[in-house]
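INFO batch 0412 | record 1 of 1 | parsing
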Amino acid sequence: MTKRPSKQSPAARPGRPRKFLRPSRAVTLTLPEDIIEALRSIDADLSRAVVRVVQPLVNAAPKPMAEVVTYGGRAVIVVPWNRELRDRTGLELVPLPDGRALIAFGDHLTTSELELRLGDAIEDAALADEDRGMFQDLAKILASARLGAESVLLRNIIVLQLAKGGSQSISTS
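INFO prediction complete | emitting tokens
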């Protein structure tokens, strides 16, 4: 029986979420054991460890300050991890392997309140120009979603607070 190609785009297919936020493919590598150990000290997932080591060498075009990343029929907003954004808006920023962060809301914040806080920060002369650009991009994404056909859905994520030092291991047995 011959498999037919799916008419769904790769981003819309069900199943396991993407490991990386850009096009990727599986490759097979043969590496010395000591290199594998060194990579595992960076990240238990070898592919993520390789990306972390090589990423500084990649001369890629600059990423947008705030970006809509799709998965299936949904999308999330991804931003560079930024203390100013976290402190001025009250957002939780969940770090991603590529240095960017997923936006998460605490129970105390709504998207309307976030838009107001972004607007206030943009008007503040003390906000650095680079930060202002990110705040403006994020505000545009939220306004576009609010005024357009998209629905803004708030979802919870599970965040485990580790003991001091962060070296606690989570066991599944």
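INFO post-check: Residues 118 and 135 are 6 Å apart (CA to CA).
INFO record closed
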